[in-house]
Structures are given as structure tokens and as C-alpha cells.
Design a protein that fits this description.
Blueprint: E1 4-7, H1 11-14, H2 16-27, E2 38-41, E3 46-47, E4 53-54, E5 58-62, E6 66-72, H3 79-100, E7 107-108, E8 111-112, E9 119-121, E10 137-139, H4 142-152, H5 160-171, H6 173-176, H7 191-203, H8 208-215, E11 222-226, H9 232-246, E12 252-256, H10 261-277, E13 286-290, H11 300-307, H12 315-322, H13 327-338, E14 346-349, H14 357-366, E15 376-380, H15 394-397, H16 410-414, E16 424-427, H17 435-446, E17 454-456, H18 459-464, E18 468-471, E19 480-484, E20 503-508, H19 511-527, E21 535-539, H20 543-556, E22 560-563, E23 578-583, H21 584-587, E24 592-598, H22 608-618, E25 621-630, H23 636-650, E26 653-657, E27 665-667, H24 673-691, H25 696-705
Parallel strand pairs: 1-2, 6-9, 9-10, 11-15, 11-16, 12-13, 12-14, 14-15, 17-27, 20-25, 21-23, 21-24, 22-23, 24-25
Antiparallel strand pairs: 2-5, 3-4, 5-6, 7-8, 18-19, 19-26
């Protein structure tokens, strides 16, 4: 594996000393035994008790050499400046040391399992002596770096678990994804709680590819695509906090469609920020905003209207004119016609699959900067569109300029990048859902075992979302296709409990019987050690009927509930000590351990939006899924549960005859012709190396190094 270079700012483009050092280390990684190492530029930055910030210019993390913070200095640096640099890099090293000590596997008593060796680096052959009271090692040449690395080389390299933990601490993932504390006094009785505790510990080890996407500096638009649970929201929270740290005066917008996501996004951003700064973000500069907003809830559209001196439409006013589905599209278009002035230095868009093109165009005009330099990051899951909004290519999403050219072109803007920046990231791994749940959700979402209403258009697209086509890869109309989801793309696994299946269904004869089954199921989870806030009930049919009755029955049993359906002010989705009740559209962007999806008879299986609703509801769970419907409302519930039964019977495989894409809604993959060709070449390269017996992890690291793991084919990097 070559060195993983994480550049969080544009420092390397402005610092020739640091850049030459990085290039030398990267070029000579093998001879210097720096394989599986990482170099961070301008990261991390910590503050002391006085609020003073300290960070390295470079931070080398190596299994063979430990952790090496580096300050790069120009030649001829005076002794006094050298002493100051030594003091700051020394203080940073102390702050980093204290964070490593919080991880039990990184130390024995107060001794780390590796060394932290601060270095002052400059090209200065004239320097003959080290000034007094300098604690860092002074290195004045590239050959001196090689000598230092030879001295620091460990007898045996740090193992992968230790290295993963070191990087997780440095990158702040532990603070962001810290699992909830659970008191388990009787594991035999609290089997579900014990299984969940183990699962949450696995999820906390956030994938390096995801963290890399969050930290890398991209000077222009960036797209992040991934399944529900692949880490998109966490990545955006990390990006927002990191941008706020390195640009404390910049205005940053984080926007999304689901009102209940506001509290989650704000909490995640604050957790990551506090890990480095020991204080809350300045919320006057970091705006976490619902897409629409209103009188009681801040929003991207409504606040833009206020700044433009224009009254904002509410949903009812816009829907009256053009209908519910086009309401936000119409409102934003009306504002754009009036004119929008730039306001934000950075814009981050989550849940992009539910937002119309005019909202994207609004965000473009709200962002400061020239066309290809506007730092807009937009994340979406093209398989989770509750409101039936198709995902056009970025060239269509953001509108066109006066010259007729698209406002945003990933291929055009990528020509400006250097180093390992990636502006089109694909997240294949799912960290939320159990593999059985995700495969079943995809089968229901597409209509695989009923009436197929939408389909991925190629084997490459199936690969993008983490599947492998075993047969029928050409996807010719009418031919049998067989897929599987490899375990490595759904890496978190719940301990199997004999009497508690991951998925369970119930076909009730009446509304009352269905409610009783849900109540019994909730009580079983509570008896098994889950907390009320670990449980979510989503009503697909008549939420105003299902949810109050469930709340009444649970209250009679001494269990309180939190109904989020009337939530319009961004209150927390989950409340300690309460079971969450929600409609499907309110649950998006959130997750719990156990999810009950009731009233499946209320959703159409013949529409794209109906199928997407099933997928969105099922993928809210990170552990157990329970699905129910009633025959009293017709045969539809049995149809849905039969599809689930077939998907579970064939799991982990998906089998279907390829439909004619001209006759159904096709989910467009959104790759240019050149991108598709390069993607095909990367896949062939991967298969060839696997056939030669090369370790799969080594292959993926090599692909990532060349900037192709997220598929940014316009700019493959040379070694």
C-alpha cells in the first residue's frame, strides 16, 4: 500500500518545504517502510485550556515508526523562531498524547504502545548545531529524514487494529460515533441489549474510506453517493465541523429536507467539533437549516427570501398553486427569478434525493466563489426517494449560466484539482442495516418479487451500491439475473438470537390484531433489555389512526411515546425513555435499533414513490425489522409480506428476469461515457489482481491512492 495523503486544506500548494517532503516520502515509501502509513496536512488542530489552537503542518502516522508531528520551516529560520515552533509542536504532541490515552487499546497504564516524535523540518545545510532547550528533532535535509526514520523504526510494526484505532482517534471518528452506554446486569435475560451493545461497538469503527471523504479538501463542487446507512450524514457533519475549525470566520450552511434531521445533524457536528476544540461551534456562522423553513423553523429558502426582501411562501401557499410534489420547486424558482445574492462560503446538502433542481440552483447562487470553485457538497441516495423526485446529473441539477454551460460540472471542475482530492465519491459499504434487511429492502424498493417498477441500468450500477452480479451481467431484456451482496459491503453483523430473528412479519386479520402484535413485540424488546428510545414505529397507513392507538396502549402499560409527526421545529427525533412514533417521511435520516413498520397495506406497490417508501422505512433499523399489515383492508398486505418472504428465502441472493428499461422508471447512474469506461477498466484491474492472489485490501488501497475509489476518472493521479 502506498501512503494515504489526507490534505484538509490547500497548505501543500502554498508550502514548498512541506510539499517536497511529502513527495519524497510518497516516492520512497517502500524503501522507507512507510507502507500502510498516512500523512495528514494541517490536521488535526487541538485547543488547550486557554483556547489557543495547536496543530502540525504535517502528521506522519506509520506502523513502523509511530506518530511524527512535523513543523515545516523556511531555511534561515532564527533560533528564537525555532524555539517558538518547538514549543507549539511540543504542545500539540502533548494534546495528542492525552487523546490517545483515552483509548484503552493504545496504552498500558500511562505508556503508549508507540512513540510520538515531534520534528522541525527545514532545508538548511548551514545549520550546524541545535539551539539549547529544543525538545524536537531538527532535520535539515531529505537524507536526514531517512536517517531519522531508520532510528525510529520499531522492531515490529503496529498491527492493523492498533493503526485503525490510532487513525480513528486522530480523525475524531470515535467522538462522533461513540456508542450509547448500556448497563447490562444479566446478559442471559438482556440478550437483545447485549447483542445491540456489541453491534454498536462495531459501528463505532467508522470506515477509513468514509473518513477520508469527510476530511479531504476539495476546492469546488463534490458529490457523495451512497446507500442509507453508508455514512453520508456523518461525513457532512465532519466536513462542517472541520471547515469551521480551519475557517473560523466562514459562513457554512448544512441543509436537508427532513425536519427531524436538524437535531441529529447539529449534535453530530458539535460532537466532532468539541473533540478538537473543547467548545461548541459558533452557530451564528454554522447554519444547520431545513430546506424550506418557516416562521418557527429556520430554513434555507425562507431565510434567503428574508435577505432578498421577499415574503417566503409557506408549503400550503405553494402547494395550492402547483401541488404538493412541486411546492418547493415552485417556491425556489420564484425566488431565483427575483435574484439571489451569494451569502455562504460553504454549502453542504444532505438528503439530496428529496430536493428539486431549483433548490440546488438556489444553493449554487447562495454560495460565494467563481463557478467551478464554489465549495458545494451534495449527498444523496438515489434508491431512497420518497417524493419521487428523479436525480438528474449535476449538469442538470444546478441549472445553466448565461453562457449556456452548466453551473456545475464535476468533470470540468475536477481539472483544477491536485493531489488526492475526489469530487465524486461512492460509498458502497452500509454501516446501519443488517445485510438481510438491506437486501430485503432493495427487493421491495425495486419490486423484484412483485411488479418491478424501477431498475438499476447496468452491472456497474449494481456494483456502485455494493452488489455483485453473478450471472446475467449484460442485463439483456428477458434474461435471468442473479446478484449477491458480499459480506464486506455490509460489515456489521448482529449476533443471531435463536428466538429473535432479524426480520419478522405478521399478517393480521384486523386493525386491532395488528396493533396487539406491535405492542407485544415492543414489550418483548423492552424485556430483552432495549430502552424505549431504541424502538421506532413507522405507520405507512393512516398515521393519525395507528400512532395514537399505539401510544394509548403503550401508556396503559407504563411506556411513554414521542410522536414526531407534528414536529415542525426540529425537535430531537428520539427522546430518552420514549418509544418513537413516526410517519415514513418524518423518519428519513434517522435510525433506531428496532423498527416496526405497520400498515403496509396503505402503500402502493405499483408506483415508484410507494416502493421507495418501503425502502426508506425498512432501512431505518440498524438491528431488527418488524413488518405488519391487515387483511381487513384488502389483499394488499399479503402481497407485500409474500414479497418479503421470497426475498428472505433467497437471501443473500437476488434473482429476477431483466425488464425492459424503456417500460419502467430507470434510476440513472449519472456517469459520463468516459467515466463509465474508466470504471470498467478499474473493475477489470481489480479482478486481474485478485486472480493473481493479491490481498483485496491492498488492491482497494492502491485504487484509492490513484483517486479512483470514489471514481473521479477525469483526473487519475500518477504515482
Amino acid at each position: 500500500m502506498t501512503i494515504d495523503i489526507i490534505s484538509t486544506t490547500d497548505r501543500l500548494s502554498r508550502d514548498p518545504v512541506a510539499r517536497r517532503l511529502v513527495e519524497h516520502l510518497e516516492k520512497n515509501a517502500a524503501s522507507l517502510q512507510l507502507e500502510q502509513s498516512a500523512i495528514y496536512s494541517d490536521f488535526p488542530v487541538y485547543t488547550d485550556n486557554e483556547g489557543t489552537a495547536y496543530g502540525p503542518d504535517l502528521l506522519l502516522v506509520s506502523p513502523s515508526h509511530g506518530v511524527i508531528p512535523i513543523r515545516s520551516l523556511p531555511s534561515g529560520t532564527s533560533d528564537s523562531s525555532l524555539s517558538l515552533a518547538d514549543a507549539t509542536i511540543g504542545q500539540f504532541s502533548s494534546l495528542l498524547f492525552s487523546r490517545f490515552l483515552k483509548s484503552p487499546i493504545l496504552h498500558t497504564f500511562s505508556q503508549l504502545r508507540f512513540t510520538i516524535s515531534p520534528v522541525l523540518f527545514q532545508f538548511d545545510a548551514a545549520r550546524k548545531a541545535t539551539p539549547l532547550e529544543i525538545g524536537s528533532r531538527i532535520v535539515t535535509s531529505l537524507s536526514g529524514v531517512e536517517t531519522l526514520l531508520a532510528e525510529l523504526r520499531r522492531p515490529s510494526a503496529l498491527g492493523k487494529p492498533i493503526m485503525d484505532e490510532v487513525r480513528s482517534v486522530i480523525e475524531g471518528a470515535k467522538a462522533l460515533t461513540r456508542p450509547q452506554k448500556r448497563i447490562i446486569t444479566d446478559p442471559n435475560r438482556q440478550k437483545m441489549a447485549a447483542a445491540l451493545q456489541k453491534l454498536e461497538a462495531e459501528i463505532a469503527n467508522f470506515d477509513q474510506h468514509q473518513r477520508r471523504a469527510a476530511l479531504l479538501n476539495v476546492t469546488g463542487p463534490q458529490r457523495i453517493r451512497g446507500l442509507a446507512g453508508s455514512g453520508k450524514t456523518v461525513i457532512l457533519a465532519m466536513k462542517a465541523a472541520n471547515l469551521h475549525m480551519i475557517k473560523p470566520d466562514a459562513r457554512i450552511l448544512v441543509t436537508f429536507h427532513t425536519t427531524t434531521l436538524a437535531a441529529t445533524m447539529k449534535t453530530l457536528t458539535a460532537k466532532f467539533y468539541r473533540h478538537f476544540k473543547d467548545e461548541d461551534p459558533d452557530w451564528d456562522l454554522v447554519h444547520v437549516r431545513h430546506s424550506w423553513g418557516g416562521a418557527a423553523l429556520g430554513g434555507t429558502y425562507s431565510e434567503a427570501c428574508r435577505r432578498a426582501g421577499m415574503p417566503a411562501l409557506n408549503f400550503g401557499q405553494a402547494a395550492y398553486k402547483v401541488g404538493n410534489k412541486r411546492a418547493l420547486e415552485h417556491a425556489c424558482r420564484e425566488l431565483l427569478d427575483k435574484g439571489v445574492a451569494p451569502y455562504y462560503d460553504h454549502v453542504l446538502i444532505d438528503e439530496g434525493q428529496d430536493l428539486p433542481a431549483s433548490f440546488y440552483e438556489l444553493c449554487f447562487h447562495l454560495t460565494v466563489g467563481e463557478r467551478d470553485q464554489k465549495p458545494i457538497v451534495f449527498a444523496y441516495d438515489e434508491l431512497q426517494n420518497v417524493f419521487d423526485v428523479k436525480m438528474p446529473d449535476p449538469e442538470q441539477l444546478f441549472g445553466t449560466g448565461p453562457d449556456g454551460e452548466p453551473n456545475v460540472s464535476l468533470q470540468r471542475s475536477s481539472q483544477r484539482f491536485s493531489g488526492s482530492a475526489i469530487n465524486d465519491v461512492i460509498l458502497r459499504k452500509c454501516y446501519r442495516n443488517q445485510r438481510e434487511v438491506l437486501v430485503t429492502a432493495h427487493c421491495l424498493g425495486l419490486g423484484i418479487y412483485g411488479k418491478i417498477v424501477q431498475m438499476l441500468e447496468s452491472a456497474e450500477h449494481w456494483d456502485d451500491v455494493g452488489y455483485q452480479v453473478l450471472s446475467g451481467a449484460a442485463l439483456k431484456v428477458g434474461t435471468p439475473v442473479r446478484l449477491t451482496r458480499p459480506e464486506e459491503n455490509s460489515p456489521v453483523n448482529l449476533d443471531t438470537l435463536q428466538d429473535t430473528p432479524v426480520i419478522d412479519t405478521h399478517l393480521a386479520s384486523s386493525f386491532e390484531e395488528e396493533i396487539a402484535w406491535v405492542i407485544d413485540g415492543i414489550q418483548a424488546f423492552l424485556t430483552g433489555g432495549l430502552k424505549p428510545e431504541d424502538i421506532l414505529v413507522i405507520a405507512l397507513d393512516s398515521p393519525w389512526k395507528y400512532l395514537p392507538e399505539i401510544a394509548r396502549r403503550l401508556h396503559a402499560d407504563g411506556v411513554e411515546t414521542n410522536d414526531v409527526t407534528p414536529n415542525r421545529r426540529g425537535e430531537p427525533f428520539t427522546v430518552q425513555g420514549k418509544v418513537t412514533l413516526s410517519a415514513a417521511y418524518k423518519a428519513k435520516g434517522n435510525e433506531t435499533a428496532a423498527v416496526f413498520v405497520t400498515g403496509v397495506h396503505g402503500i402502493s406497490t405499483r408506483s415508484r414513490s410507494g416502493r421507495n417508501t418501503f425502502f426508506a422505512a425498512f432501512t431505518r433499523t440498524k438491528a431488527w425489522l418488524r413488518v405488519s399489515g391487515a387483511t381487513a383492508f384488502g389483499p394488499h398486505a399479503k402481497t407485500v409480506l409474500d414479497e418479503i418472504a421470497k426475498a428472505r428465502k433467497l437471501f443473500p441472493y437476488i434473482e429476477f428476469n431483466m425488464p425492459d428499461l424503456a417500460e419502467i422508471e430507470t434510476i440513472q447512474r449519472g456517469l459520463t461515457a468516459d467515466a463509465a469506461k474508466i470504471k470498467k477498466g478499474v473493475d477489470a484491474f481489480r479482478k486481474e489482481l485478485l486472480a493473481e492472489g493479491v490481498d483485496p485490501e491492498v488492491i482497494e488501497d492502491l485504487i484509492a491512492h490513484h483517486g479512483l475509489d470514489g471514481l473521479n476518472p477525469a483526473r487519475p493521479q500518477a504515482s
